[in-house]
Predict the structure.
Amino acid sequence: MTAPAKLVTLSRHIHEEQRLHPEATGEFTRLLDDFLIAIKLIRREVSRAGLIDILGFTGGVNVHGEEVKKLDAFAQDRIFKAMDHGGHLCCMASEEVEELIRIPDPYKRGKYVLMFDPLDGSSNIDANVTIGTIFSIQRRVSGPPGSDGTLADCLQKGRNQVCAGYVVYGPSTMLVYTAGHGVHGFTLDPSVGEFILSHENIRIPARSKNYSINEGNTSAWDEATRRYIDHLKQKDPATNRPYGARYIGSLVADFHRNLLYGGVFLYPADMTDPAKPKPKLRLLYEANPLALVAEQAGGLASTGRERILDIQPTALHQKVPLVLGSRQDVEAYEAFVLGRR
Ligand code: AHG
Ligand code: MN
Ligand code: MN
């Protein structure tokens, strides 16, 4: 009989990673443990979404003018309630909430900030298609300790993130995270409620064979994006085939597939009015966390002109053009944008 692979839970893994930091107090481990409670509750709700009266709209509209689905609201509520009283956070920010989220009295204010997209890909919920949750953790920069966090704590460059990752609610539920020492994936065993290490040290292939973009928007793209996608449709001398198109419409699911198989995801700005470029994806809740994961796995994340992790955020709900995935594919896109190809 072959010996079983080592069984490592997510909590144990985070704990071990923390020991790589001499200043670690264990607080960070407890923060992620709290977060996991919310994730397990969301997963349970997602998995029985077809069975109970939770499908459909709440009737509300969020800060981006989008209709809020019940599961968006449920996920927002569970994450807030799991994280508000742990004493680890000084504030939170979410795609679904317009203002900075305060830690309610009388709970202690801590030294970290949590930013999240509670439910990503929500247009896919009613069709039983994979959706996700994205998270980003920064260390607070405002003072004094114990006071409320401020906008400055949230508006830090993505490269300062101490931890980032996502959960993908697919045929199985997986959590993928980085705390600056590579990217690791854990699969939930629902029978025991534990995330078990299943993908250690994930590396994204340097060059891919697939691209993910909403091609219905072609007429709104800039010239460089149009030329780049046309280029991918030509026969690739390396494979003798053009690139394949793969687009789910859930950023987490598209990114996750590209991370494991190789691929490039693009959501360029809408250039219908060239004087007013309109990007769609959010810097703090979507682009930054996935950019950190991509880079830690050996990939890249860019606007086409600038590294995502180097952008100085100026507003909570700031949006950016996003191109991320396999390193050589993102570099090729940048070459098109800069007019070198
Ligand atoms: P969210 O569900 O959090 O609002 O995000 C939706 C995003 C992202 O998941 C996806 O990549 C993108 O919107 C899809 O947009 P299009 O439908 O415009 O292609
Ligand atoms: Mn999203
Ligand atoms: Mn969302």
Remarks:
- Residues 294 and 300 are 6 Å apart (CA to CA).
- The chain has a mean pLDDT of 93.
